[in-house]
Design the sequence.
């Protein structure tokens, strides 16, 4: 497992450097993984990396880049846009020579084109956003404040919004709400992986059997 | 609303109970069967540290998806989330009106 950096196109036409976790031995089969988003990224990080370890053993290189503004990134999350994230993942796919792409949950809409595109348990961006807004409504209510999903959504699209500790800009929220995933991707539904999805967990967890199953499905799909 | 009275009136009661226990098993990462011991007074929101606002939001979304109901903002209140019995009562009443 090697931390690498890669050149990410910046909004002003320049470049920034972002981090990627890689298992890269220059093999023919190379999988770029677009991670799950926000809180789900934490809950699924271990499953993601455990799956990468298994793919490494199956002779498949994997690359897990940060989306700018998340994880180890120096960029501010608030300044990110949906098109910027799409450009970033396109650039990562080219630089690492990905032969296949795996999107995980909310990362699926950011999965770049590749000869083979897999989506693990894809979620509509609008549904993810609705859940994060609801989380804010629940915590506001607990604190004795009255907020509604509708007013938060409107305010977010005007001036940005902090959701579960993630400060998202207005442009991001406007575009994210209507974002669709590619209909051409091969879907890996949770029932093929077995057990319940780890993104549902209140706390980050792990499951070796799920990592085994997910890696086996991906390896099978990537067979030449 | 009385927990047992609502259950007795609603033919879908057993189904809701079973599905809700499964959702809580998934969200709380319980071992299979562990949620069987939940009774009407088992404390949820405010009693289980891992059940924070984000987890509750996830819980409500799963309830909507798996039980095919829509939960409005103004229906989300502390009391409904406080115990297993209150949450089950809410879900069953909601399903009865679909």
Sequence:
């Amino acid at each position: 497992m090697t931390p690498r950096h890669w050149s990410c196109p910046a909004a002003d036409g320049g470049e920034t450097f972002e981090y990627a976790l890689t298992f890269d031995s220059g093999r023919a089969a190379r999988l770029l993984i677009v991670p799950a988003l926000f809180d789900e990224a934490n809950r699924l990080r271990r499953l993601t990396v455990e799956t990468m370890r298994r793919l490494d053993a199956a002779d498949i290189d994997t690359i897990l880049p940060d989306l700018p503004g998340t994880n180890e990134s120096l960029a501010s999350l608030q300044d990110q846009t949906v098109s910027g994230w799409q450009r970033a993942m396109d650039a990562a796919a080219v630089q690492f020579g990905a032969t296949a792409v795996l999107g995980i949950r909310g990362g699926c809409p950011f999965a770049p084109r590749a000869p083979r595109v897999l989506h693990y348990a894809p979620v509509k961006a609008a549904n993810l956003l609705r859940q994060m807004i609801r989380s804010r409504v629940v915590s506001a209510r607990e604190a004795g404040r009255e907020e509604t999903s509708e007013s938060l959504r409107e305010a977010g699209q005007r001036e940005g919004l902090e959701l579960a500790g993630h400060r998202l800009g207005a442009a991001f929220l406007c575009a994210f709400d209507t974002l669709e995933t590619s209909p051409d991707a091969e879907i890996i539904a949770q029932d093929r992986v077995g057990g319940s999805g780890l993104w549902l967990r209140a706390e980050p967890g792990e499951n070796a059997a799920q990592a085994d199953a997910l890696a086996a499905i991906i390896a099978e799909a990537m067979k030449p | 609303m009385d927990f047992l009275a609502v259950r007795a009136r609603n033919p879908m009661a057993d189904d809701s109970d079973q599905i809700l226990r499964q959702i809580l098993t998934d969200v709380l990462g319980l071992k299979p069967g562990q949620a069987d011991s939940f009774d009407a007074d088992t404390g949820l929101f405010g009693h289980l540290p891992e059940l924070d606002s984000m987890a509750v939001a996830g819980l409500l979304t799963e309830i909507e998806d798996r039980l095919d109901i829509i939960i409005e903002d103004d229906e989300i209140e502390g009391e409904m989330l406080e115990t297993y019995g209150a949450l089950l009562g809410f879900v069953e009443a909601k399903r009865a009106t679909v």
